[in-house]
Amino acid sequence: MRRLALLLILGSGVLAARLATAHHSFAAVFDGDKPITMTGEITDVEWTNPHFHFSLNVKDPGGAVTLWRFEGYPPNMLVRQGWRRDETLMPGAMVTVEGWASRDDATLGAVRWVTFADGRKLAAGPPAGTGGR
Amino acid sequence: MNTRSAWLAWSAVAAAAASLGAPLAAQSAAAERPAPRAANGKPDLSGIWVATGAILLFEGEEAFAAARAADAAAGRPAGNSGETPPYKPEAEAQRQYFLARRGIDDPMARCLLTGIPRINFRPLPFEIVQLPDRVLMLYEIHHAFRIIPTDGRGPPEDAEPSYLGESVGRWDGDTFVVDVTSLNDKTWLNNVGTIHTEDMRVTERYTRDSFDTIRYEATMEDPAVLTKPWTLRETFRLRPDERIREYECIESNEDITRFENLLKQGAVTE
Domain segments of chain B: what residues? Predict the structure, then answer.
């Protein structure tokens, strides 16, 4: 699993980290120096506070499927970015997720962007280390 | 110049700038619309505000860069970006301890009220309601509020240390000054491990220097841990189209369980 995670890690610099204050859950749980990008099928969405979560099945080149879980903005911020609870992200959707890997959990990530099948891209979580969560 | 004629003048300048295609950042501070005034002649701070640091999250990188450029042109604070308090050695050792533990001790991660001044730097809007005898601050973060008397009364006599303490407001010219006392020692000031004692006094200064901006300063005095007073600064931006939404913190906060696991696994030392 760790190998798959490493394969998926890309070198995109995205505004990473250090912009403002390091935040509790980000610095403690996620690594702003481990950006990840992966595509998969949504299996579950939890529209909850203070973070929303979703899970997606990610297939590696050999066909093995891994269930990943992501943590992002609370509903108040999702709505500001154009999300709607019962419309935007539903089980079965194929999406591409950009974010950062957990330091300790091989299948957990912090989400920054979600790109949908129609090409639309919405912010789903804060930049690493900006304290937006 | 009264408010209406000032606004008309601002409109004319803004329209001229727009017609020339001037970039936002190039508009000088002089072209900024002046702050409105309350019936008592003081600036009216009322409105929905967002710390400039949060513009990145709300409106993206371009808007954030433009806001910071406008602040630089107007000489406004560039924001709280992680300065370290001037700690005495023992307090600095405590901060290093919390850093070594990856910040898992952050009171905010446990959904506790964020304290002063940290609550003002959080990336969610807050509303200021300025009334003749008090100023209300309604924060989206943690659904928290402050009621700040401005009628000359002092802090309550039965005050006990608390997360947001006791605030008393007064005017220093056009600057709204808030003296905050009776804070408990369970909050951090900005970043990981920025501790303080119950004896800390915070003096906040809110200056609405244009229609769209407030210059904010918070000075912490806490001789038990600080070698000298310490000031943090930020610019708040008016966002009239925002509304204060619900913020609930406990429902699916998984941090506490994760932090316990980190300790059990030895990833973070006791």
Answer: 47-243
Q: Is A88 a member of any domain?
A: yes
Interchain CB distance below 8 Å, A51 and B80: no
How far apart CA B135 and CA B129 sit, in angstroms, is: 6
Side-chain half-sphere CA neighbours of B68 within 13 A: 16
- Inspect the interface and report whether the beta carbons of A127 and B251 lie closer than 8 Å: no
Task: Name the residue among B54, B58, B252 with its Cβ closest to that of A49.
Answer: B252
A48 touches chain B (CB under 8 A): yes
CATH number of domain containing A13:
2.40.50.140
Structure tokens that stand for B182 in this block: 């009776």
Closest residue in B to A14 (Cα) is: B61
CATH number (2.40.128.20, 3.40.1790.10, 2.60.40.1760, 2.170.270.10) of B47-243 reads 2.40.128.20
What pLDDT score was predicted for residue A25?
60
**pTM of the full structure:** 0.85
Contact with chain B for residue A121, Cβ under 8 A: no
C-alpha count within 13 angstroms, C-beta hemisphere, residue A31? 14
Residue A89 lies in a domain: yes
For residues B162 and A42, give the distance between their C-alpha atoms in angstroms, rounded to a whole number: 43
Closest-approach residue (CA) in chain A for B123? A132
Kindly report, residue by residue over B113-150, the tens digit of the pLDDT: 999 999 999 999 999 999 999 999 999 999 999 999 99
In this prediction, the answer to ipTM > 0.95 reads no
DSSP for residue B35: P
In a domain, A106, yes or no: yes
Would you list the DSSP string of chain A?
-HHHHHHHB----TT-S-SSPPPHHHHHHEEEEEEEEEEEEEEEEE--SS--EEEEEEE-TTS-EEEEEEE---HHHHHHTT--TTTSS-TT-EEEEEEEEESS-TTEEEEEEEE-TTS-EEE-SPPTTS---
Alpha-carbon gap, residue B31 to B111, rounded angstroms:
42
Q: Are B113 and B182 in contact (CB under 8 A)?
A: no
Is residue A18 within 8 angstroms of chain B, CB to CB?
yes
Q: Which residues pair with B126 in a beta bridge?
A: B49, B139
Tally the domains of chain A.
Answer: 1
Domain enclosing residue A104, as ranges: 2-123
